[in-house]
Design a protein that fits this description.
The chain contains four helices and 18 strands. With 376 residues, the chain is α+β, with helices and mostly antiparallel strands.
Length: 376
Amino acid sequence: MPTPPKLLADAYEGWLDAQRKALEVMLALEQPGTGQDWAEGYRWLTRMASLCQDWVLEKEDPLRPTLFRNQDAYRKLIVDNPDVNYWFVAVRPEHAYRLHGNRGEAPYLGFTVGTDVIRGAPGRTGTLAQHDVDQFEVGPNGDFEIVCAGERPAGHAGNFLHLPEGTAQIAVRETFTDRRIQRPAVLAIERLGPPAPPPRAEPEVIAEKLRAMSRYLLVIAHTCALLWKSSAANTNRIVGVAGAQHVRRQADEVNTHSDTDMVYMGGRFALAEGEALRVTIHRPPHPFVYWGLVLVNPWMESYDDRWTTTHLSNGTAVPDASGDWTLVVAPEDPGVPNWLDAGGRREGFLLLRWVLAGEAPPPPSCAVVPLASLRR
């Protein structure tokens, strides 16, 4: 009976071991411990394993690039935003690519050029450049075409996006203020030049991808656990997020894989029986594109927004007479506008994002109030 190459068998055993270690991270996290939180935790492990397989094993190929949705209602990665379509593609600066399509109607379509988020990289890591589609020439009907490469191809005079040395990926964030009425973008990419030969599942290639999947799964698990742990210091308030791998002080975001057009603010809500958290989003004194507040579980997944309201934005929240916005986080319906439904839970995480709002939009005001006072 034939036996598999040892490097493949070892790499697959490492993948199984990584899943066991991710389970240990999940079990060790101090979290509210409701049945729902535990169930979502076990589901989260399967979702992240599935994401790593799809992302690394199947679709990471800069010679035959695939621009794909890497997050959706079923796979939510490190504080996802339901207002965003997340796209991802593996690229390399020694190749040239044609990124094209129609920008759609979302007010922001951002391109984050970064180093290898899956394996890490020596030296400078994280975001290398940040662009948005409206910095390029876009046709009157929204069509666009951008050449992406380490150097501008000879004779090319159109839109060009530079891929700095060390580039391994482009992440796309398509941010809607109200996706119910805004048409999404249509995006595609292909490598320019002679076609690559058909790929083969060589043992060395698959073994390396299995090892990369194992590393990335544990990076995700530890990052999510760190974000939840660090939020305990900011209970029932929302402040600038700092001290974690995914989101740091805005001045340091170029060293992470964040979209540097965004400012992140977060905190934890913890309510007693009969309480709610009132959150006032203050209108900045300068123009901005978007703010969005989302409820998140201990595994850094947004609450399921398909059946109830678990996030609001400047396009979906009802403004106050002052121009600010008052939101209410509560486990049950308080009977007021802008209710964020915690689904019976009294503890969770909150993340507020701003897009193109300057470096220091005003932090929101938060207050724990009796539910009964809101109903009156």
